[in-house]
Design brief:
Structural class: mainly alpha
Largest sheet: none
Helix content: 55-70%
Transmembrane segments: 21-38, 58-75, 95-114, 149-169, 176-191, 203-223, 235-256, 282-300, 312-336, 348-370
Order of helices and strands: HHHHHHHHHHHHHHH
Organism: Craurococcus roseus
Keywords: Membrane, Transmembrane, Transmembrane helix
Radius of gyration: 22 Å
Number of strands: 0
Protein name: OpgC domain-containing protein
Shape: globular
């Protein structure tokens, strides 16, 4: 497994790879898998139970960080047009992956409804539209205006990348990028603007608000690519403020989720907590994930030895192959949910969580193996072209 983990150049080729981002992206993907299974005991120990943020915020922030590194390097070397084309190509890949996942997930739920005679799945997962207007539902899914539960993260990412194309012009001016992004964020929240959906209302993850977190990540990645090891300098006062914010948030979140302390909370506190929305990325959620990222970014050294150790390797590997792992996690989480509904004891809990994790790691390992082999093939062809040698001779040259 260690040989499959990439620790050299990032996608954009700018600087050595930051395994911290890969590790925490892998952890976020694992948490998403866990949290999508009602009745999963491990769900009580994920970040959403102790902070005003969860794996989705981590995933979007790290996606922006990776985009700032990768596409920023392309921007520097080959210009805006090429970098924009690369972003658009990635959008196409995500769109195809989303539609494939949509079809597979819908078929999976439909089969479970028929086999288990449980119509509640359709209502809970917002797939009842297929029973009423199947052709219209499929069309609206193609337009990203119909997003069943659990299938709303990739559409968010698609729109964020589309927004990144014009924003590439500001990538080398991170402060201006963040200022413009936060101005849009404030305006969107004040005006309550969202993208429309087929059946009324707005997107569950409002891209016009979530872009703030994504572009902050882009700015951090761009600064890192420019050679700044710490885009936001280490400050004891700022670290203390971040720790206090997270500690206060943990107390309030735990209190809000338990029935015993609820009657003792002041009315204004209860009103505030009920208004911390996820769809529009409430400022408290935004500040919480940024505070957590700041602390972890300074507490964990970029070259920490444990990031290359056995315990971290599965999560680093998953983080480096996020798209197939995410899609597989959605499929596996519903399988796990059905299994836990049949038996929720600890043997089934252990089997579902362990099997799901191993499956996602295996998918990442296959992706890493394929990428490694195809990369070797590309290098061999490049050697052959430069030396005008046949492929067999190029193989010997590479071996030497």
């Amino acid at each position: 497994m260690f040989g499959l983990v990439r620790s050299g150049q990032g996608r954009g080729g700018g600087g050595s790879r930051d395994l911290r981002a890969d590790f925490f992206r892998g952890v976020a993907l694992w948490f998403i898998f866990i949290n999508h299974m009602p009745g999963n005991w491990l769900g009580d120990y994920t970040i959403r139970n102790y902070a005003f943020c969860d794996a989705t915020e981590a995933f979007v922030l790290l996606a922006g960080y990776g985009a700032g590194l990768a596409y920023g390097a392309m921007l520097d070397r080959q210009g805006w047009l090429f970098a924009s084309a690369a972003v658009l190509r990635r959008v196409g890949t995500l769109y195809i992956a989303h539609m494939f996942l949509f079809v597979v997930f819908t078929a999976q739920v439909g089969y479970s409804v028929a086999a288990l005679d449980n119509m509640a799945y359709l209502d809970e997962l917002a797939l009842d539209a297929f029973g009423e207007q199947p052709y219209r539902a499929l069309l609206e899914a193609l337009l990203l205006r119909f997003q069943p539960a659990f299938l709303d993260i990739l559409p968010l990412y698609i729109v964020l990348l589309l927004m990144l194309m014009p924003a590439l012009a500001l990538l080398n001016r991170p402060r201006l990028l963040i200022t413009a992004s936060l101005a849009i964020y404030v305006a969107v929240r004040l005006a309550d603007v969202n993208l429309p959906t087929w059946r009324g209302g707005g997107w569950f993850f409002n891209p016009l608000a979530w872009q703030a977190l994504f572009f902050i990540g882009c700015a951090l990645g761009s600064s890192r690519r420019a050679g700044d090891p710490a885009p936001i300098p280490r400050s004891r006062a700022l670290m203390a403020a971040c720790a206090a914010l997270l500690a206060m948030g943990a107390v309030l979140v735990v209190a809000w989720q338990r029935p015993e302390p609820l009657p003792y909370l002041p009315d204004w506190v209860a009103s505030f907590l009920s208004g911390v929305d996820k769809a529009g990325l409430h400022p408290v959620r935004l500040l919480s994930i940024l505070a957590l990222a700041y602390l972890l970014g300074h507490w964990i050294d970029r070259d920490a030895a444990w990031l290359r150790g056995a315990a971290a390797a599965p999560f680093v590997l998953m983080g480096q192959h996020g798209l197939p792992v995410f899609c597989a996690g959605i499929f596996l989480s519903f399988v796990g949910r059905v299994a836990l509904e049949q038996s929720e004891g600890w043997p089934m809990q252990a089997a579902v969580n362990l099997a799901g994790l191993l499956a996602m790691v295996a998918i990442a390992a296959v992706g890493a193996w394929y990428r490694q082999r195809s990369g070797e093939g590309g290098r061999k062809r490049a050697v052959a072209e430069r030396t005008a040698l046949p492929a067999a001779a190029a193989n010997r040259t590479m071996a030497e």
